[in-house]
Amino acid sequence: MEPFELDRAPYSKEAEMSLLGAILLDAGVLDEVLSLVSPDDFYEKENKQIFETLLLMQDAGLSIDYVTLMEQLKVAGYFEEDFTRRYILSLMDAVPTTKNAPAYAAIIHDKSVMRRLIEMSDEIRTHAALSDDEAKTLLEFAGQRIADLQNDKKGGSFVSIRDVMMEALMRLREMQSDPDAFLGMNVGFSELDRKLVGIQPSDLVFIAARPGMGKTSFALNIAQNVAHKTKKEVAIFSLEMSSAQLVERMISSEARVEAKRLKTGELQSDDWTKVTQAASALSESRIFINDASDITVGQMKSMCRRFKELGLVVIDYLQLMRSGAKPSENRVQEVSEISRSLKIMARELSVPVICLSQLSRAPEGRTDKRPQLSDLRESGSIEQDADMVLMLFREDYYNKETEKQNVCEVIITKNRHGETGEVELSWDGRYTRFDTIERKYEDEG
């Protein structure tokens, strides 16, 4: 398929010439514009070659002026006697003022983005016409290509420690009047929150456990707590259970009505009152559920961008996810790519992302059955990408005679912001509900 042809590709000859001329008149300009423009942003071949040569000269510590540039262009093989001399002189004549160099660079980069967007559109159109992929895969391909263009940066920039220090001191002063405002998002379990010191925006948190430990219920409890307390939107992606099954669990937990009775419909007289009140409270919360079983990280990110006040994303669970590419024979590598994509998603959305993960069978072979960080199934880069890793362990699942009946240990194996260690929560399987030990005792008293 032939690409769409424009009469003239977007570029500014004046901006390209003025920027190069400004650098020749004042070599210090090059330092100012390196974070704004690269050689590939230049449209005219000669201008690109000149800018590349100027960069090489700077890296080599050579002085930059008309004479030295001419010499280096000869060395690089870009020199044509009459044309090059006249063109270099015309560059210096074209500069209105060197003070506007950053503005020239911004124009050059802007036009470069426009050209790449046109090329990308042609690529997407051709891919859609010739590919055998499904429409949703093509949409993800297109979305990712545009996201890559949006996130294109020229090496970022430095900030002064003085500026950062002032921000840090102001933050400390504000914390004195409102200590909880900067501690991140609480998960709703007091002792656990004290150790975690809050989950920060852009954090990627993994909740890992062997089957039967209650990781889905734990994640749902956190989602309910966050939705109730913050009044923000909570997005839940359930790749295993249907939305109806998740809501049933949340009603059981909120109403303290046995999940079994909800499944069978054998509700007692006072159960209906509890269920109605719980349903009303849950309906007021801003929880949104997507139960598509074949969703990718790119699709999740696209959907999450539609929310106005997103506070938390919950994904159940990692091993059921797939990358946007075709299935890989190397599942460890694929899971690693997914994990990295989740971290990028958390940063781009600036919200915490909680992802559930299975553990390998390794704990079953140990005497105490307790999970370790190395037990993360198909771990790949999960340990590196995660800001927090919480592992659930219930001793009574393996030992019916243990004194720790209905107790779940939350083992914090990684925590960038606070402590590691263990926190005990009460677990009531009848209601698929976790609670702090203190709260349980208060309720019973």
Task: Walk me through this protein's architecture.
This protein is of the alpha/beta class. It has 2 domains: 13-150, DNAb Helicase, Chain A (Orthogonal Bundle), CATH 1.10.860; 184-444, P-loop containing nucleotide triphosphate hydrolases (Rossmann fold, 3-Layer(aba) Sandwich), CATH 3.40.50. It contains 18 helices and 9 strands. The protein has helices at 13-25, 29-33, 45-59, 66-76, 81-93, 101-130, 135-150, 161-177, 190-196, 215-230, 243-255, 259-264, 269-284, 297-304, 331-349, 382-385, 395-398, 437-444; strands spanning 204-209, 233-238, 287-290, 310-316, 353-358, 388-393, 407-415, 421-428, 433-436. Strands 3-2-4-5-1-6-7-8-9 form a 9-stranded mixed β-sheet. Strand 4, helix 15 (331-349) and strand 5 (353-358) form a beta-alpha-beta unit. Helix 1 (13-25) packs across helix 6, helix 3 packs across helix 4 (66-76) and helix 14 (297-304) runs parallel beside helix 15.
Q: How is the topology of this model organized?
A:
Layout (H helix, E strand, L loop, with lengths): L12 H13 L3 H5 L11 H15 L6 H11 L4 H13 L7 H30 L4 H16 L10 H17 L12 H7 L7 E6 L5 H16 L2 E6 L4 H13 L3 H6 L4 H16 L2 E4 L6 H8 L5 E7 L14 H19 L3 E6 L23 H4 L2 E6 L1 H4 L8 E9 L5 E8 L4 E4 H8 L1
Parallel strand pairs: 1-5, 1-6, 2-3, 2-4, 4-5
Antiparallel strand pairs: 6-7, 7-8, 8-9
